[in-house]
Amino acid sequence: MRLSPALAYGCHYSAPPLKHLLTFTLPRHHRPTHSTPLLPTTLLLSSQFPNPNFLTGNCPFFRMERFWAGSGINKNKAMVEHLKTYGVITSEKVAEVMEGIDRAFFVPDGNAPYYDSPMPIGYNATISAPHMHATCLQLLEENLQPGMHALDVGSGTGYLTACFALMVGPQGRVVGVEHIPELVSSSISNIQKSAAAPLLKEGSLSVHAGDGRLGWPEHAPYDAIHVGAAAPEIPQALIDQLKPGGRMVIPVGSVFQDLKVIDKNLDGSLSVRNETSVRYVPLTSRDVQLRGG
Q1: Which of 121, 138, 95 is nearest to 276 (CA)?
Q2: Contact by Cβ (8 Å): 195, 96
Q3: What's the burial of 85, exposed, middle or buried (CB within 10 Å: 0-12/13-18/19+)?
Q4: How far, in Å, CA of 135 to CA of 142, rounded?
Q5: Mean pLDDT computed over every residue of the chain
Q6: With contact defined as beta carbons under 8 Å apart, do 149 and 173 qualify?
Q7: Catalytic residue numbers?
Q8: If DSSP codes are grouped into helix, strand and coil, which group holds residue 51?
Q9: What is the pTM of this model?
Q10: DSSP SS3 for 249
Q11: Residue 13: pLDDT band by 50, 70, 90 thresholds?
């Protein structure tokens, strides 16, 4: 099966409460012919995907419906509540921030902004699914405290960059780096419509055109670094710009990818662990991305 490169999806759902499992019914053509327990890490993808190639193959139930695929989510708060219900969001701070930054401002017209699905944003790039945004925010929460510095590599539409800015506040500093100039321009417009607009105006939040693999040294070191595309290996420049005590979240791999959590210890050494399997667009040069390579 050919995998679409336009994807940012993971497989890290907690099992929903039992009462939801008891009332959930699979479409007839997706029902298993034998008894199969739902695993705690199962992500159920929707048959309503805009592109059937949006399948990672990493999830054992990838052909089933998502629990809320047909529930008519049309409000940002409802999207967050669903993610809380199914154990994706466990942090009240993350829930507050995701409720405060309306995803609709960051999803291109013609897409359903509150579906838990990645969306194409042009230039062979995507905005990640809401559950991946929530996962990354929770992994970085302790390093996004007021006054801290954060770097968002491959900032795309600016959604997660705006969330970071709300978390660190006006005394902090958030930098988004995106190598497609048109996406930089549109992301700034998106942020200007959102609750993060005052932080953009005051200068504690900024988005720049550049090669994110090189980071953004001007405001380093960073307490938190997020990378929104999969690197073949962890870029040394990002390790160098990570503050001792800081944390980086980055997908690493090519065909098979893992979301890695990298903590820089106070002595400068690194602790690395795998959080979950994911499928992201590759972290590459602008020219290669535009060619779809």
Answers
A1: 138
A2: no
A3: middle
A4: 13
A5: 80
A6: yes
A7: 128
A8: coil
A9: 0.78
A10: strand
A11: very low
